[in-house]
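Lab notebook page, bench 4
Experiment: in silico fold of construct C2
Operator: M.H.
Input chain length: 173 residues
Purpose: comparison with the prior construct
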Amino acid sequence: MELEYGEKVKLDSKDRKILEQMQKNCRQTIAEIAKNTKLPRDVVVYRIKKLEQLKVIRAHHTLLNPQRLGYPLYVYVLFSCYNLNPEDEIKLVNYLKSYKKIIYVAKNSGEFDFTIGVCSKDYKEFDETVREIRQKFPDTIKDIKVTPVIQEYKYDWMVDLISIDKRGKNEKN
C-alpha cells in the first residue's frame, strides 16, 4: 500500500468519534460503532465510506503477534544506498515488498534511505535474509544498520493524532 500525500482532510467531531472507535476495534459492527458514538447507523456508514474515499482510512487490518506465530525475532533493518536512480529504486522496493519475511517497508529521509521490518525464526534465518538482499543489490545498498525489537509499546495508534485540537495540544493532557 502506497502512502499518498495531498491536502489535509478536515475532520469534524463525528469523524473523530468514528475513527477512534475503529482504531480501538476495527471488528466492531456498524451498529456497535453507531451505539458507541451515539450517531445514526446510516451516518456512520456514509462517513466511513467518505473517509475511505478520501484515503484517511487506508486499510482495515489485524495486528498479528509474530512471536505467537513462530517468528520470535523481529528486526528493523535500515539501508543507506548509493545514489539511487528511480528505476533501481523501483526494483529494490518491489523486491522488498515481495519478500514474505519482510513485513514492513518504508522510504526514509536522512542517513538511511529505507527501513524494513524482518520476521525470522532465529538469527541464522535473519542473517540469510539480509545476505540475500545485499547480494541481490550489491551496487545499490551501501550500508545497513540492524535494530532488533525487544518489546513493542505503541504501534499504529493514530487515534491520538485525531484528538489533537487546532492549537496543537493533546486533548487528553
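Observations: The helical segments are 13-24, 30-37, 41-53, 86-98, 123-136, 159-162. The first strand starts at residue 73 and ends at 81.
Next step: discuss at group meeting.
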